[in-house]
């Protein structure tokens, strides 16, 4: 006892010292999540309430909320850039997997299109400024500033693992994420109301939706002066509606990057070389058989032609609408069938791939997998509703058969494509074969037709070309032995990735820019009724559209890792 008193109090072990810090770390995350949930519920209430006539919530209230949220998020981003990251040791680690160049490049592209949309919106509302609320013109201007600052912030800080101002950073990132989700929800609701108005106008049933072509012209003063009657006004109106898909994708891209940053706050990264890899430079058609890119481009061009024909003919008489639906479903059946077979073949090729599985912690990959699985549920739901309506409904004709085949292939395509992408993301980069860690046994890569001979053959004698004390020479020897089959598999996987990428782009373009066979084909509308079917489609379809663009981003990463 006396010796212990003389030595003084002992230092706590590292695990005990880190205990309170870990508890507060979880508390800070919990605080940010609770803040996000409350703000998100408030935004959902106002946005959904403003979409119906009987609810006394005006679109000016929604614009005011979104403007206030964007201003607060912008202020926090400026504080982060000007104060937080300039603190000593603020960013000791950077996550190499977070914010890949193609994701940031897509964010910039969609951000530019969003800025153009804001210009069209400003011009549209300025066309009848006299009877409009000032918030309607202020909202697109604030959104433009928010998009510019946020895009710069995500470009330079997407990989940061911040270790200062933890609670404020967690709350700021989560609030900015919820701001993007609120913008996404507002755009989806606005576009859904517009599509509902188009359907109700073509069927002379105005009770299905309010007049969305004048959807934001809530005129407390009244009168026809707020109608968009000039040619310039109509150009602005149609222009920003066609640019809505880019704004939707920008918000979702930003949300995914912000979530990864939120997960990386306070994170410690191991500096061992086995936990990361150097990004491979992207060359689009290098080391491919060209079959995938050529066939993918062909389907993309044909898909654009089919989409144009569909948009022109679907609003005509009944016979032209039926013809447009037959062409639309036929193309989609061919495209979905090919992508299903190609995805399945890619999974089969992986059975012969010797690259090691990457089991290291990777928040970016975890989020990608969760988004792929979660977003696919939207298209699954629509497909199963269509299957029930076609099988149980009448009559059974060609259009019903095409609809049923399309729904079944949609389920199969999402399933097999997700399997291929998820397995690809968990594969190590090129050169991560398990045998590369044992370069002293170069003969283990040889293939024997008789497996029992493997135990009876004598050890391979050393040869001057394969024995070297240099690790680089050993890796080169392994590469020489495994090159022929490895290059063949790599080229096949690159072709598959590019083909699936181009097919997912055209499958994104069609619904994102207004193709709605769910309403033009009256099987589901007659079976479920317009009100229920509109709710199902308007809730599930945005997830299906997001799935396609997120699959494109993931397939580009698969191409690089192949």
UniProtKB/TrEMBL annotation:
Keywords: Cell membrane, Hydrogen ion transport, Ion channel, Ion transport, Membrane, Transmembrane, Transmembrane helix, Transport. It holds the Pfam family Otopetrin. Residues 1-21 are annotated as: Disordered. The keyword Transmembrane helix applies. It is found in: Cell membrane. GO terms for molecular function: proton channel activity. InterPro entries: Otopetrin. It comes from the Eukaryota. GO terms for cellular component: plasma membrane. It catalyses: H(+)(in) = H(+)(out). It is a multi-pass membrane protein. GO terms for biological process: proton transmembrane transport. The keyword Metal-binding does not apply. Its main location: membrane. Belongs to the otopetrin family. This is Otopetrin 2. It comes from Gorilla gorilla gorilla (Western lowland gorilla). The gene is OTOP2.
């Amino acid at each position: 006892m006396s010796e212990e008193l003389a030595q003084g109090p002992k230092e706590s072990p590292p695990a005990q010292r880190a205990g309170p810090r870990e508890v507060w770390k979880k508390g800070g995350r919990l605080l940010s999540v609770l803040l996000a949930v409350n703000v998100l519920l408030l935004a959902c209430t106002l946005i959904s309430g403003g979409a119906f006539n009987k609810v006394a919530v005006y679109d000016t209230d929604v614009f005011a909320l979104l403007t206030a949220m964007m201003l607060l998020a912008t202020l926090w981003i400026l504080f982060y850039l000007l104060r937080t990251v300039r603190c000593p040791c603020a960013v000791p680690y950077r996550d190499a997997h977070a914010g890949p160049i193609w994701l940031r490049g897509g964010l910039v592209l969609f951000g530019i299109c969003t800025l153009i949309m804001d210009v069209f919106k400003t011009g549209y509302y300025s066309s009848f400024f006299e009877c409009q609320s000032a918030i309607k013109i202020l909202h697109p201007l604030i959104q433009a500033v928010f998009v510019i600052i946020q895009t710069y912030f995500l470009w330079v800080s997407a990989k940061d693992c911040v270790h200062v101002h933890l609670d404020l950073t967690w709350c700021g990132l989560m609030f900015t994420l919820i701001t993007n989700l609120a913008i996404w929800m507002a755009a989806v609701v606005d576009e859904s109301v517009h599509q509902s108005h188009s359907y109700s106008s073509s069927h002379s049933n105005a009770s299905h939706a309010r007049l969305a072509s004048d959807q934001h012209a809530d005129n407390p003063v009244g009168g026809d002066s707020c109608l968009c009657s000039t040619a310039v006004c109509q150009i602005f109106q149609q222009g920003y509606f066609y640019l809505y898909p880019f704004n939707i994708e920008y918000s979702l891209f930003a949300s995914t990057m912000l979530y990864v940053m939120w997960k990386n706050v306070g994170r410690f990264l191991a500096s061992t070389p086995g936990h990361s890899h150097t990004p491979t430079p992207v060359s689009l058609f290098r080391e491919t058989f060209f079959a995938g890119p050529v066939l993918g481009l062909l389907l993309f061009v044909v898909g654009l032609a089919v989409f144009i024909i569909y948009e022109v003919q679907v609003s005509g008489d009944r016979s032209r609408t039926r013809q447009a639906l037959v062409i639309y479903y036929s193309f989609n059946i061919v495209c979905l069938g090919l992508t299903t077979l190609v995805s399945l073949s890619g999974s089969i090729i992986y059975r012969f791939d010797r690259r090691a599985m990457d089991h290291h912690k990777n928040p970016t990959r975890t989020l990608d997998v969760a988004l792929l699985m979660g977003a696919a549920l939207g298209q699954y739901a629509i497909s199963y509703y269509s299957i029930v309506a076609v099988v149980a409904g009448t009559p059974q004709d060609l259009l019903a058969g095409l609809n049923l085949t399309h729904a079944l292939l949609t389920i199969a395509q999402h399933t097999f494509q997700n399997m291929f992408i998820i397995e690809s993301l968990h594969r190590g980069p090129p050169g991560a074969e398990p045998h590369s860690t044992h370069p002293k046994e170069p003969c283990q890569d040889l293939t024997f037709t008789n497996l029992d001979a493997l135990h009876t053959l004598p050890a391979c004698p050393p040869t001057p070309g394969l024995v070297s004390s240099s690790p680089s020479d050993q890796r080169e020897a392994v590469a020489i032995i495994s090159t022929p089959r490895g290059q063949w598999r790599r080229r096949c996987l690159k072709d598959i990735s590019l083909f699936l990428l181009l097919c997912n782009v055209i499958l994104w373009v069609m619904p994102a820019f207004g193709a709605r066979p769910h309403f033009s084909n009256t099987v589901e509308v007659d079976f479920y009724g317009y009100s229920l079917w509109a709710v199902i489609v308007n809730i599930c379809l945005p997830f299906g559209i997001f799935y396609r663009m997120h699959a494109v981003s993931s397939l580009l990463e698969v191409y690089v890792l192949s």
